[in-house]
Design a protein that fits this description.
Blueprint lengths: L9 E5 L4 H27 L13 H4 L9 E5 L5 H8 L3 E6 L2 H14 L5 E3 L12 E7 L9 H11 E12 L27 E5 L5 E5 L4 H10 L2 E7 L16 H4 L5 E8 L1
Helix pairs in contact: 1-4
The chain binds S-adenosylmethionine.
Length: 272
């Protein structure tokens, strides 16, 4: 539910999209958007900073990852690697993975600017290029999970690369947001769509008919079910409140909506 940076005329649809088409759309979309994304949100994220979403709720406070010192950590959908850099600053061996080469170039830029290097790899969340049981922690802050069609494979991949007892942590658009128009102002407060309609949100290039951006919706019970099916025990489900004095608009997230409805869900789970 983007509608923040349409660079060419797009039409918005709800229709089924498979994994290959989701990836073909979202990689180039993030390449096109990366410069503007980092220019707009980089300061809020912090070069060495870990927030879970537009509310500014920090991992320092949330503690979903647990202690990271000395741990092998993978960030999926790492973007410019701000979160991984925060982990590295606390002694974790964090590495990043992202679908967008341009986002990873921004990660290189921050490596140089901060002196904290996050080794990173271009790849997709549904085919992680790592051996089994490589990591103690896998996390994603608004990274890949809502962009993949094949969520079961994605969560299975997370389980595969985690060691037994390892942590999975991720944030997503709060599933209830899918009932509302993606508008930060008053129109975004009236439910217009079924919460149970899992049909993906799709932007289509008006001229070429090519799908240019995709997001996938799952209900809260879908998330719990896919974690359980892949051997995870849920440890956290956090719904950060919008801080009273926080007046930043990020896409459909704003104070107007944030004071009334949850915008972000954060899950933590342990691999059995
Ligand atoms: C909203 S950004 C979040 C990045 C970073 N966590 C942050 O807070 O800035 C989403 C990121 O997920 C990446 N992404 C989207 N689909 C992906 C996929 N299938 N596999 C890996 N990364 C993906 C995008 O390229 C983008 O960098």
């Amino acid at each position: 539910m983007k509608q923040e940076w349409p660079q060419r005329p797009v039409r918005v649809e709800r229709r089924p999209v498979d994994e290959a088409e989701s990836r073909r759309a979202n990689g180039p979309d993030w390449d096109r958007y990366a410069d503007e994304y980092q220019a707009t949100h980089g300061e809020f994220l912090g070069d060495i900073g870990f927030v879970w979403g537009p509310e500014g709720f920090a991992e320092e406070e949330a503690g979903v990852l647990g202690p990271v010192d000395g741990k092998d950590v993978l960030e999926v959908g790492s973007g410019a690697g701000q979160c991984s850099r925060w982990v590295r600053a606390r002694g974790g061996r964090a590495i990043g993975l992202d679908l967008s080469w341009r986002q990873l170039q921004h990660s290189r830029r921050l490596d140089e600017a901060t002196g904290l290097v996050v080794p990173s790899v271009l790849g997709t969340a549904t085919a992680l290029p790592f051996a089994d049981a490589t990591f103690d922690v896998v996390f994603s802050s608004f990274g890949a999970l809502q962009f993949v069609a094949d969520l079961d494979t994605c969560i299975a991949e997370n389980a595969r690369v985690l060691r037994p007892g390892g942590r999975l942590a991720f944030s997503i658009t709060h599933p209830t947001r899918w009932s509302f128009p993606d508008d930060p102002e008053e129109p975004g407060l009236t439910a217009t769509q079924s919460y149970w309609d899992r049909t993906p949100y799709v932007e289509v290039d008006d001229e070429t008919g090519v799908v240019t951006y995709v997001e996938h919706h799952r209900t809260l019970s879908d998330w719990v079910a896919v974690l359980a099916a892949n051997g995870f025990a849920l440890t956290h489900l956090l719904e950060p409140e919008w801080p009273e004095d926080h007046d930043r608009v990020w896409g459909g997230w704003s104070r107007t909506r944030g004071l009334l409805t949850p915008g972000t869900a954060i899950f933590g789970a342990e691999r059995r």
